[in-house]
Amino acid sequence: MSTTTVPTEAQRREAQRRTGSGRLVGRNILVYRRAPLVFASGFLEPLIYLLSIGVGVAALVGDVTLDNGQEVPYTVFVAPAMLATQAMNGALFDATFGVFFRLKYEHLYDAVLATPMRPVDVAVGEVTWATLRGAGYSAAFVVIMAVMGLTESWWALLALPAALLVAFAFAACGMALSTYMRSWQDFELIQVAVMPMFLLSATFYPLSAYPGWLQQVVQVTPLYQAVDLIRSLTTGHVTPGLWLPVVYFLVFGTLGLRVASQRVGTLILR
């Protein structure tokens, strides 16, 4: 005769905890299914920038010489920067405004942490969802780039995994920062940081156009690292040095995830 082992209460709670992050992602998917226009709006901004600046201005600028000496059309130069921006903005939106609303007003995490889930499970679930959102925007933009012929190398196939890594890092950092926000007005500080990065991270002109001291400042910013990584892949300029931005974003994201989980526990379980 076969015997059926009945799981203990501790085993059941552990099983629930392990699937908790996935359930949190599923919950966010259900919420956004009711507001598809909010999700779809994230595709438009970088596409408009690409068509207006990358195509319109390209007729006036012509080719651009990259820092490695390679000459590419201006639209090819701008497109990977728009892809990096897409990954950043898509992940940041939900990891900042969305997390803050669920934390301070919806009090979702108070209910979640009354279950076997831990603060780290909350952080993993929210960062995963924000990363998936940024990756979804990025995937659509990669298709647009391919259709428009804005990829110069087969290395561009790795642009989407690179964008996924960028989205993860910005999502984790964004969630960590959101736990320190006291009101909606505090989010202006994030915009103050994001806008200069968008304009100055070699997005619309090469790094060599900056003064020497400003080049050093720009090179340590996360969006520049993202633009440089993705642009190198789409233009085929792949060197061993590309491991540096990969490590940069892995460390950046891991630290952000750790801070986010600690802060959620401090705010809810104190």
Protein described:
This protein is 72% helix and 2% strand. It is mostly helical. A two-stranded antiparallel sheet has the order 1-2. A hairpin with a 5-residue loop joins strand 1 (63-65) and strand 2. Helix 4 (44-61) runs antiparallel to helix 5 and helix 5 runs antiparallel to helix 7 (119-147).
**Oligomeric state, counting identical vs distinct chains:** single chain
- The gyration radius over C-alpha positions equals 21 Å
Largest beta sheet: what is the strand line-up?
1-2
Note the beta-strand portion.
under 5%
Secondary structure category: mainly alpha
- Report the uncertain regions: none
Main sheet attributes: strand count, strand direction, barrel closure:
2 strands, antiparallel
Shape: elongated
Number of strands: 2
Please estimate the helix content: over 70%
Order of helices and strands: HHHHEEHHHHHHHH
Mean pLDDT: 85
Count of DSSP H/I helices: 12
Give the terminus-to-terminus CA distance. Answer: 50 Å
Task: Note the main attributes of this structure.
single chain; 270 residues; mainly alpha; 12 helices; 2% strand
Give the structure's gist in a few sentences.
With 270 residues, the protein is mainly alpha-helical. It contains 12 helices and 2 strands. Helix content is 72%, strand content 2%.
Layout of strands and helices, then pairs:
Blueprint lengths: L8 H10 L1 H14 L2 H5 L3 H18 L1 E3 L5 E3 H31 L3 H5 L6 H29 L11 H20 L8 H14 L11 H8 L2 H14 L7 H27 L1
Helix pairs in contact: 2-7, 4-5, 5-7, 5-8, 5-11, 7-8, 7-12, 8-11, 8-12, 11-12
